[in-house]
What we know:
Layout: H1 2-29, E1 40-46, E2 49-51, E3 55-64, E4 67-71, E5 76-81, E6 88-89, E7 94-98, H2 101-136, H3 142-175, E8 177-179, E9 184-189, E10 196-197, E11 202-208, E12 212-218, H4 223-227, E13 232-236, E14 239-251, E15 262-267, E16 280-286, E17 292-297, E18 302-304, E19 307-314, E20 317-322, E21 324-329, E22 332-337, E23 344-346, E24 359-364
Parallel strand pairs: 1-24
Antiparallel strand pairs: 1-23, 2-17, 3-12, 3-16, 4-11, 5-7, 5-10, 6-9, 7-8, 9-11, 12-15, 13-14, 13-16, 14-15, 17-22, 18-19, 19-20, 21-22
Helix pairs in contact: 2-3
Amino acid sequence: MAKSEKPRRYVVGVYICLILLIGANLSGCSKPQPVTEEISAVRTQIVEENFYSINSNYSGEVRGRYESQLAFQVNGKIIKRNVDLGSVVKPGDVLMQIEPKDIQQTLNINSAQVNSAESQVALAGSNLARYKQLYEQNAISRAQYDQYQTAYDTAVADRNKALAQYAQSANQMDYSSLYADSPGVISGINAEINQVVSAGQSIITLVKDGALEVEISIPENRIEEVRNVQQVYVTFWALPNVMVDGKVREISPMADKISRTYKVRISLPDAPQSIKLGMTANVTITDPNNKKALYIPVTAIYQTQDQPYIWVVNNDIVNLSPITIGTIGDGKVQVVEGLQAGAVIVTSGVHKLREGQRVRIAGDVL
């Protein structure tokens, strides 16, 4: 039994070897499959030189042209607040009050000093009158009379000093109330009841009645553009059907320390009543240098580090071409160098292409 199994295993092993050899020969004789070149469909544009006004858009906030930062002129603890955010006030309205106890005590002290000074003046005047009679009767010398005259003059001066101190303390009492200096709207409150504030500390922001403005921030490379702007129009997020002509009134001479942008105030000469303080606005500035040039879509730019490129199509082959760009806005880029009118460029899918790749034009955006 063992002898018959051995030849059988040998025959099976031979068959396996033959099958492996045949498979190896067949695989070695198979022909390689041809590689199909990938042809991408791209959208292109024929570059033309024309006039195109690039607009820059900046978000901003509606502000009042005149804003006052109101503050107390004395130190103290706030005991009363008569206004809230959005309150409409008139000149002379009391906005806040601070504790006047210490000021009242100072006023009482100065009042007592005035009374004492008045008494000294009365006494010195009485003495002067008596010694004047004695001097006229040659009962005393001129030097003695001059002493009483000097005493009277000193008493009068002390009284004037006491009166001035009393007036000053009376003013301090009046300063314990914070008044509105003009008609307007309260747009900011920086202190609350029981808070101790110091003299000169900004407490309330009062937007005075009058012209409205929009404040925007611009980068430093757009200052000249904004300075020479010819047309500005403003729209509002909360008022989609309202568009107002604006005018650049003021450009900050110094950049913000944090954002490194410059504050710009856009006046609204014909602002309707529906525009309110604090509304979000969009300011559109038209490029003042509207001249004939080459403009391409932003989507056509292929950026590598700091150098922008475009894909130029020649005979269905794409090649990278470096360019120098100018102004940017409204989805358009001005090309200053590196591109000629009439060239065909790729306008979409630029990051999926490679140098020398064959493409198929799917359509032109003219």
